[in-house]
Structure formats: structure tokens, C-alpha cells
Amino acid sequence: MQNTVLHASHLSKTFGATTVLSSASVEVGRGEIHALLGGNGSGKSTLIKLLAGVHRADTGGTITVGGVSTPAERWSVEEAKRHGLHFVHQDPAVFPALTVAENIAIGRGFPTSSGGRIDRASLRRRTSEVLERFHIPATPDTLVAALRPADRVMIAIARALQDREGAHEGVLVLDEPTASLPAWEVDVLLAALRRYAEAGQTIVYVTHRLDEVIDLADRVTVLRDGRVAGSRDVEGLTEAGLVEMIVGRPLDRVFPEQRRQVATDVAMSVRGLAVGPLRGVDLDLHRGEVLGIAGLLGSGRSELLHALFGDLPVTSGEVTLAGRPLRVRSPRQAMEAGLALVPENRGADGLFSSLSVRENLSASVVRSYWRGGRLRHKAERTDARALVAAFGVKPDTDTPAAGTLSGGNQQKVVLARWLRRDPAVLLLDEPTQGVDVGARADIYAHVRAAADHGTAVLLVTSDFEEMAHVADRVLVLREGRVVAELLAPDITADRLTELSYLTMEVPA
Amino acid sequence: MTTESTEVAPPPSPPASSPGAAGRPAHEAPAPTWRAQLPSLVEKYALVFLFALMCVFFTVYQPTSDTFPSAANIRNILGNEPVVAIIALASILPLTCGQFDLSVGAVAGLSSIVTATAAAEHDVPVVLAVVLGIFSGCAVGLFNGVLVARLGVNALVATLGTATLVAGLVSLYTANLVISIGIPESLTALGSGTWLGLPRTVYTLAVIAVGVWYVLTQTPYGRQLTAVGVSPGSARLVGLRVDRYVLSSFVLSGGLSGVAGVLLLARAGTANPSVGPGYTLAALSAAFLGATALKPGTFNVLGTLLGVLFVAVSVNGLVLAGAADWVQPTFNGAALIIAVALSTSIARRRAGR
User: Fold this and answer.
1) Given an 8 Å threshold on Cβ–Cβ distance, is A404 in contact with B226?
2) What CA–CA distance (Å, rounded) separates B94 from B90?
């Protein structure tokens, strides 16, 4: 490749006896957008951390930036910075309570006047220049909290690149910048990245989202099991092709088949539910179906699930479960009624990260092991092992702390915790967030199996592509109400996007 | 915290878990070898080893080799420590639930005064006086619990306030005078007597320790308490009433501190209004030391007892060696800081953060 800007060759990393990255090489050309793909645990984050100098590579590799080679084991955060590698991480470290100007100045220091006071005028002037250069629609005095999420990411990018006046030297490394962005914000950010690339900026782009890769990137490198599984031009690649590279096996289908026929046996019906932004939602959920709830962030999707689960007080509305009125005022009552909720924020609301996988699995059924005045630990262990095997949790033991598992495996544990209760209604809130493509397939296979057993599933996901593959029926929420219904063969991501966005105003 | 960062966590994190289970052989994790387990074994038994080292050292060290290993000294340590040990066990209940209780020492002091006053000055039957003492501890615990669980006051601040308040009220009521006359003999006999060669206080401790162990590890309540401490948000969504667990842990902590207060009275034979608060720090040191041992990252009963013994033997040895007054607070303070730092980092690593 002519004009290589960044060449990492034969990078390896071992932690104790565990090799997480083995002899990985990546070559990035000037001005290209280079996507880095791989499942959870593929070594992609490790590679980024080696490049950033956060972790030290094993001896043997070299990192070459702009023609200057450095042995990988001598690479450090300072070296990375000196050679012009700029990193913007998944959760952009911006300070919502500070202004745009302050956020950008934190990257390189505040201009001061005599006496050490911050020179506000010069700060504002400099910030305006930066904002203009990066096409960020904000003023220096805006609080970052008031910006759209995509603009916050762009502020972080601008902060990283601000010293590179005009000339697009170095490499911008973005680690899943879109992971926490709602769909329409993603487009804003991608448009901005495309603009930077056209101006000659080299970008390394780490993501889970395949459509972004196809859309944006020039080249892609895929990691699998700590090795580079392949590196090629994106031109001519399809999402299916990418999935095969990531998973390392041809996929007949990533997602289980939808049911073409919707059952008629109503498991739960909701009438006039008002809570948060919802202003009277009506829906019927049938036994054995996967009902998707589409809508934009802030449309009240999560609130709907939390209200049904008794975790949010309902303003008004009726819920019936299997024909009987249901009034739950707490998650406990909801559980007793046969409901289960896999929450969106796995770290804070789902997992007990320092407890073992076993304890996480039994969190929903602890009392059932209380027999004869003590907890039946042996029975608990047997059940936990069976669940670990049934759900394909890796590593296949029940003893490690759940927080040490990869995202996909953590989610399998949370899902197993609820499915073991054989719930009448399963509420899923963004069940595949931060989950790699292989584990996604596994998770939906289990959801489908539960549905086949008669569980009614209510699914919220921002990934409309996924929704289109998984749901039997989709209701679209807009402005607090159900505005559309789509049935299986007609559910497409485009249609869902269209229906969700209609008359939508971008919130400030 | 993002999910991706877990893949680079050092062992014990698993090797890269491969995507997709279907149609592919699972990665066989290599059987843990003795060598691979060594770091975790060292971590588990480091405190046991240090404790043994201390004992050996003071036994062979010339200035203490006569006094330290003597039966009288060992009986003295075993007789005194159950008070601290019970207070430490009291403190691990709120700690398990993610909350500090800094009032445990003051509550023990209160309970000893309440029991002594009831028995000596109001001629209340001994059993009832003891119940009153324990009950006063529960009442203070309830107060703490309401402050923290219902009003959302930070537990450190709330219990520090309560501790100071209780100490102040005790001082007001007793006019800072030691109650030494009329303490029932049945009570002092419990404190000073021996049974089967061991101080009787040790048996009280044993009962309490088994009780706390049972509650924490053998009942759903203990499991749920741990769950609430690890992640209140997740606990709420598996149907737990987080505030109830927090509140009840403070009530239990107060009650157990009350028991420790009764034992304190029995041991000393007098009720001194100023000694209670001094136990808090020693108890917390022991609790945090305990969280580095045996079940690292978790507050556990055996570890706590070991922590108490470790601090007691160290301080006892140093005092016998002729160390000055400053040694005990310095040692306790250093032990607390080291223990908290260690147990925090262990817990963090275990959680994969």
C-alpha cells in the first residue's frame, strides 16, 4: 500500500497465561477510513489500547507512524501523542457541566491574561475557530449538557485534533463513537467523519455496527480470537460477508426465522397507559409472539417497559394479564405476576458485577433455594451449571465474577436469570447493546425458544435492522402514542426508520 | 463502564470468549494449575500467614518471649477481644449492604451504660437490663437506618453524627461518671469467668459469629443484602426493596453493637461512659482486613475474626515489648488504611473493573 500512515506489525499481548492478542498487524493508508471490527473478546479493544499506549505490548512488534518505527514494547501514551495518534473513546470524556469553550480548552490549556486569570475573550475566539473548522453547530458558551449526543462526540474529536491546524496529520482513532448514540445522531456524526476524511484526515474506526462500516469505511480489518482474520477493501463487501469474517463461519442466518402467523391468544393487554412521555398507549401482546416497540430515543419505549414492570409509577391506564386486571406497584409484584425485565443499562441495573455468575443467575429465584432453614448451595450450583451450559456462557463455569465476562456473556447471564423463571411476559430493553454479533444470534435464539414455549415478548431495540429480523410484529411509538403497526413480512429497517422519524423534530 | 474493557482485564478474566456458540467447539479452558492459582492462594491466606508470623515473632523475640506466649496473656487477649470482634461483626452487616456504620462503638458504649444503669440504679432484673441495653442499640440502628434508607443521608455522615450525638447524650446522662457500684455479679461472672479453660466471653462471640455467618451465607436475606450492596439498581429490578435491606442492616448492626456493649460491661465490671466510641475504628480495621482474606473482596465472618486477632496480637506484642502509647492508635490507623485500600482494589478487580 502506498503512503502508509500507520503500520502496526506483529503486536501481541498476554496477561499471565492468557493471550488476548497474537501477532496482529494493521496497515492504514493516508486519508482512508479504516474500520476495525470484531466480536467481544476478539482482541480489538486490546489492539486499540496497545496503540494508545495504555497497555504495553509484548516484545517483538513494531509500531510505525509516518515512517518512524518504534518497538512496540517501548510504545507509551506520550509516544502515541507525539506521533500524532489521537484517541476518542467510547464514552467521550466531555464535561456536561462545562461550556463548549471550556471543554475544548481542557485539551491544551486555557489562555490566560496577566495575573493568571482565564482570558475569556481569547478563549471564545479560539473556540469559535475550532468549532468552525470542525463544522460543529454550537457556540463557545453553550453548556455541553445542552448539546446533542453526536455533537458531544464531535466536541471530543475537535478537542483531540485542535492542534493540527488545517493539515490533517496523524491518525484519529475512534473507539465505538456511535455505541451510545441514537440512530439519527449516528448519521450526523458519520456525515461529519466523512467530511473530515475528504479533507484528508486518516481515521481508524472501531465499531460493532456493520452498516456503518459499509457506509463509511474504505478498508476493514477484522479480528477474531486475538488474531487478524482478514483485512480488505470495503468496496463490494456486504453485511453478510462481514458477519462471516467476524464469526469465522458461514452464517445461514444470524437471526432465527420470524413466525409468519401471529397468535391470537392475548397474554397481556394495555389500555390508555400514560407514563413519562407516553400519553395513552394501547397494545395487545399475544402468547408466543415477539412484539417490537420501535421509536426514537425519548419516545417512551423504556418507560413503557419499566412501568409495566412496576418500576415506574403509572399516571393512568389499565393493564390486564391473561384476562385479569393487573396492578403492580413494585418489581416484586410484577415478578410474582409472571413478568420479567432485561433492562437497558446492564452495568447498573442488570448485573451484579462482583458476584459470581452463579449468584447472578439465581438472583431472581434465591428464595426457592431456602429449604429447611438454609440455602441449598448444591442445588443452586447444579442449576447454575445447567444454565451456563444451556445458554452457552463462556467461560463455561459458574464461578467467575460476572463483571469479568464479555458483554455478550453478561447479557446471556441476565437473560438466563429471567428465562429460568419461565415468565409469561418477557420485557427486553435493548438486549443486544454492546453485544457482538455471534452472541446476538444466541440471545435471540433463546428469546425465540421462550416464545415458542408460550412466553410473550416485548422487545425494544434501537437497531431497526435487528428489529426487522427478530420481531413478528412491530408497533411504532411517536409522540407518546402507537402510530403504526407492521406485520412480519413487511417489517423493514427503512420502514421503521421512516415511521419513527415522521414529523420528528431533532431535540436540542 | 463499557463492556469492551472486560476483554483486556487481567486474569482471572477468561481468555477471549469467542462469539457464537452454535456449530463450533467450545474453547476448553485449561485446567487451573497449582502455579496459576498461586496468586489467588497468596491473596486468600496472606493475612493468615501474617498472623502466624506475628505470633512466631513475639514468641521468639527476646523482650516478649516470656510474656507473650504465656497462658495468662493468651487468656487475656481471648477474654478482651470478643467485644471488638462483636462490634466488627456488627459493622459488616451494613458494609455488606454497601453502607458504613461509624456509630457501632458509640452504640456499644450506650448499651453498657443503659444496662448498668437499669440494673444498678433502677433494680431492673438482669435479663431485662440486658434486653434494654440491646434494645437501645436497635433503636439507634433504626434511627441510622431511617436517616440513610428513607431520607437518603450519606451513611458516613449520618452515622458519624449519630455516634457523636449518642456519646454526647451518654455524657450528659452520666455526668461522665463511671458506674461501678451495683453491677450484678451474674453479669460480671460472664465477663471474667472461664469455662473449659476459655474465657466465657469467647462463647458469646462464638454464638454471635455463627449467627452472623448463618445470616450472611445461609439465608436469602444475607444473599439479598450482598446483592443490594453490589448493585442497588440491579437489586431493585430483581424485586428487592433496597431501602428495607439497608434499614434492617443498620438495625441489626445496632443490636449486635448493643450485645457487645453488654459484654463490655460484663468484662470490665464497670460502665465507663467514655470508652465506647474508641472501638469503632478498631472494629472497622478488622472488618476491612477481613475483607482481604479467605474470601477476598467480600466481608466475611472468619476473615473479620482473623482481622481482630491479627490487630490484637500485634498491638499486644508491641505493648509487651515496651512500645509507647502512640503505638496502638498508629497501628490501628495504618491497618485500617492498608486494609481498606487492599480490599477495595481486590473487589474492583474481581468485578472486572
Assistant:
1) no
2) 8
Please identify which residue in the block is written with the cell numbers 414529523: A503
Contact between chains at B16 and A225 (C-beta distance less than 8 A): yes
Distance of CA A468 to the CA centre of its chain: 18
Chain B's closest residue to A227, CA to CA, is B16
- C-alpha span between A157 and A89 (Å, rounded): 10
B231-244 in b/e form (b: 16+ CB < 10 A) is: bbebbbbbbbbbbe
First to last CA, chain A: 43
Q: Which amino acid is at A360?
A: N
* ipTM (interface predicted TM): 0.81
Class of domain A1-84+170-249: alpha beta
Select the residue from B1, B3, B218 to test the A interface by mutation, using most A Cβ atoms within 10 A: B3
Q: Judge whether B62 and B186 are in contact, CB under 8 Å.
A: no
Determine whether the interchain pair B226/A370 forms a contact, defined as Cβ–Cβ distance below 8 Å.
no
According to DSSP, residue B196 is labeled T
**Residue B55: what residue type?**
C
Q: Cβ of A332 and B10 within 8 Å?
A: no
A283, β-bridge pairs? A270
What are the chain B neighbours of A17 within 8 Å (beta carbons)?
Answer: 11, 30, 36
Contacts of B245 in chain A (CB under 8 A): none
**Number of CB atoms found within 10 A of residue A107's CB:** 16
pLDDT in tens, chain A (508 residues): 458 888 988 998 887 666 778 888 999 988 899 999 876 567 887 888 888 888 888 888 888 888 888 898 888 888 888 888 888 876 667 888 888 888 888 877 777 777 778 888 888 888 888 888 777 888 888 888 888 777 888 888 888 877 665 555 788 898 888 766 766 777 878 888 888 888 888 999 888 777 788 888 999 999 887 888 888 898 888 877 887 787 776 655 455 555 555 567 889 999 999 988 888 899 999 998 999 998 876 678 888 999 999 999 888 889 999 889 998 899 999 999 999 999 988 888 999 988 999 999 999 999 999 998 899 999 999 999 999 999 988 888 898 888 888 888 999 999 999 999 999 999 999 898 878 778 888 899 999 999 999 999 999 988 787 888 889 999 988 778 888 888 877 787 777 776 776 544 433 3
Residues A273 and A279: their CA atoms lie apart, in Å, by 7
Name the minimum distance, in Å, from the CA of A383 to any CA of chain B.
17
Domains of chain B: 43-350 (1.10.3470)
- Write down the domain spans for chain A: 1-84+170-249, 92-163, 253-338+423-508, 349-421
- What is the grid cell recorded at B205? 462471640
CA distance A276 to chain B (A): 19
CATH fold label, A253-338+423-508:
Rossmann fold (3.40.50)
- Burial of residue B215 (CB within 10 Å: 0-12, 13-18, 19+) is middle
